[in-house]
């Protein structure tokens, strides 16, 4: 066989692949196309209702009696003003922001050092503590909200002479504490696995340079764990912001969260047939979620090592 034939055979092999390889490649292409179509359809099922609610929030009361898919004739901002003032969504919105922010701070302050210690150190009782944290993942807080409420009522009875109006029940601060406490199992479980996956080379290099364990934790591991921290913050934010049962049970006075206020607005506006104000309240609830996701989504895509090893 001449060299030309060999060269020709080599070139031809680039253009003619075995039937089995071509079949697997075609199957992968078809599977990828089907997956993309499914993702597009799922995105449309979320995108279309959100856009429809956004446009409906600017419609006048008379526009809802025609075609529901028509665009608003103008920007009726009065719906948002009425929702904020007349329906007290402004006060409820402020309460939700305060409770959510405080709960996220408390959860991170407790979960970050706990998950770091669980992942990087060995100590007596670690296995039992790890099993307890994993068991907490299977407890739905909505099922134990009544016992929590009764415990807080009994605590208020003990402090009645000092706080006659109560301290634990109907308190946004205590609601934030309950939120943070009930989300600790998930937050610690997520961060612990991430801390355990970081190579020991970072820790050994920092110890050689004379860094303390606290410095290693704060200045090396926490910045590297920003993708996991951002993911836990996103899930916790959605859990706190969208909660209805716990906030309705523990906040019985004027301080209500935005979800409870939105339900009250829905019941009121259905009777008054003022749907523009109702959709404006829905947009007010959705906007913080979209803003928070836009803030943390870049951190979710970062890698853990970020080129730290050389």
Automatic annotation (TrEMBL):
Topology relative to the membrane: Multi-pass membrane protein
Annotated ABC transmembrane type-1 domain residues: 93-296
Keywords tagged on the record: Cell membrane, Membrane, Transmembrane, Transmembrane helix, Transport
Gene3D superfamilies in alphabetical order: MetI-like
Keyword match Membrane: yes
Intracellular or extracellular location(s): Cell membrane
UniProt GO BP: transmembrane transport
The UniProt record lists the keyword Transport: yes
Main localization, broad class: membrane
Signal peptide residue numbers: none
The organism's place on the tree of life at top rank: Bacteria
Transmembrane regions: 37-58, 97-119, 131-153, 173-195, 216-241, 278-296
One annotated Gene Ontology cellular component of this protein: plasma membrane
Family: Belongs to the binding-protein-dependent transport system permease family.
Name of the molecule in the record: ABC transporter
